[in-house]
Amino acid sequence: MNEKIIEFDRVVAGYSPSLTILNDLTLDARRGEITLLIGPNGAGKSTVLKTLFGLLVPRSGEIRFEGRAIGGRSPRSLLAEGIAFVPQGRNLFGSLSVLHNLELGGITLPRGALAGRIEEVLHRFPRIRERIGNQASTLSGGEQKQLEVGRALLLHPRVLLIDEPSIGLSPKLVQEVMGLLRALADAGTTVVMVEQNVRTALKYANRALVLETGRLALDRPASELLGDPDLNRLFLGGAGSPAAATAH
Amino acid sequence: MSRRQTVAVVVGLALYALLPPFLKNYGVYLMTLLCVYVMAAMGLNLVVGYAGQMSIGQAAFFGIGAYHVAILMKLGLPFLAVLPLAAGSCFVIGLLLGFPALRVQHHYLAFATLGFNVLVYLVLRNEQGWTGGTFGLAGIPRPTLFGVELDGNLAFFYFTLASTVVLALLLAWLLRSPWGRAFAALRDNPIRAESLGVNITAYTLLAFAIGAACAGVGGAYYAVLVQYIEPSAFNVPASLMMLLAVIVGGSGRFFGPLVGTVVVVLLPEWLRFAQNWYLMVFGFAVVALMVWLPGGVLSLADRWRRARR
Lengths: 248, 309
Ligand SMILES: Nc1ncnc2c1ncn2[C@@H]1O[C@H](COP(=O)(O)OP(=O)(O)OP(=O)(O)O)[C@@H](O)[C@H]1O
Ligand SMILES: [Mg+2]
What we know:
The complex is a heterodimer of chains A (about 250) and B (about 300).
Chain A: E1 4-13, E2 22-30, E3 34-38, H1 45-52, E4 60-65, E5 68-69, H2 75-81, E6 83-86, H3 98-105, H4 114-124, H5 126-130, H6 141-153, E7 159-163, H7 171-186, E8 190-194, H8 198-204, E9 207-212, E10 215-221, H9 222-226, H10 231-236, H11 242-246
Parallel strand pairs in A: 3-8, 3-9, 6-7, 7-8
Antiparallel strand pairs in A: 1-2, 1-4, 4-5, 9-10
Helix pairs in contact in A: 3-6
Chain B: H1 3-18, H2 25-50, H3 58-74, H4 79-104, H5 108-126, H6 128-131, E1 144-145, E2 148-149, H7 153-176, H8 181-188, H9 190-195, H10 200-226, H11 236-249, H12 256-270, H13 278-292, H14 299-308
Helix pairs in contact in B: 2-7, 2-10, 2-11, 2-12, 3-4, 3-5, 3-10, 4-5, 4-10, 11-12
Magnesium ion binds near residues 45, 46, 88, 163 and 194 of chain A.
């Protein structure tokens, strides 16, 4: 078993004092693995990532990164530690150009390093290179997601948090993004991914954590869950079909 | 900026520069005054439009700049030496005021700047030894530029206009520089900016201090334009006018303060016929404008563009 890089230890967190979303949540993610977070809408999957990234402060419990407590630290200081976050939905600065978006993604990098890192990302995403001077809002949904992922990779993160990367992407692009995440993980990056496209994501993930109302309901190796004939029943409340698993 | 926008700006600027020789003194004065307020409003736009903070104290910095000029020029310092001092003082005071205010809460800067404006007004009024109190300071000389006296209203207009253009170019350069781009990110979406590691507090503070420095520069030009200053020109109502100019023009748009200042300064002039009713008519005009065009006058362009599609 790989070393635990990220640990939630009985974490309680929410958006206001009266609204608890993460309910005594304990989980972990391991080095070089893709940890898949799944569960019904509103289960708190995105909240897990936001809390981990310092956008929400846990009310109690402890969050550890490589064994050190990081609860309550700012996103900026976590970025410096090597944690990057690609949130759910649209995250670009639409009024700025593609290049400017990339430059902003590297704002915490030392000056000399930025150009080289951008070149790396453009090498990985040739589509983005073609659109480099365009306003980010004019990119297609798939291109925007590629740019977001590329922007996060600029920092060579050791941990990549990514929330529903497949939304709005064609099946082929979904495969591409998942393949990229797999390659990153194999190269040592720890990936924590939230995904509704469960069947596809399970093929690429190492472990699956099922979240229900802010608690861990299930923790299984991805391959095991994928082979489970009860896959749909397990976390789609029995009503699901594979098609429903991809619908959002 | 698109080619069409560039053309519009250049043509607008050329017209603005060509008009004054055909105007009477008062017209030239008004057009110079516009430039002066545009400097302050452009700085305020950085605070309101980009950093998303309310500042109700821009006129205080404007006043600090003006009194720097009045006091130091009367001591014999040349205008071009006082100008960086005025800007620098305002920048530092902006940092000192903004630092504690921005650490607390989002709306706190509004109160801090409001209080600061009242404080500055009281100091200007009561420190008679330096500021002349309510009588103000008169006889402020016009600047001399490399041996050329800018006594004439036209000469001074061109000097001020050129300075405004330089300040605008500096701000444009700042906003386009790789690190200045964080201001645009801040304007578009602060949470996204934070997720990329932009230090929101530092950038907001910087925006506020730079905005204050711009007001200081505007105030310096104001002092040598009117040649007589007194505290009431720098009280809270003036700050509100500047805020109004930014919002009416379209906050967060580079040319918003320019358009807004023209409206806010010229509208009362055009409404003179309304005499005692003018404040009321002015108020209604502003309310109507904000209801009809909440994004400011410049958002009209977006509307047209969308309507044509
Ligand atoms: N900014 C917010 N303020 C208040 N409540 C929020 C906020 N964001 C999410 N919530 C609430 O927190 C709960 C969990 O939301 P979260 O976004 O973590 O769910 P999720 O599992 O990611 O769902 P989905 O699959 O729909 O993305 C929901 O009940 C949601 O209404
Ligand atoms: Mg979510």
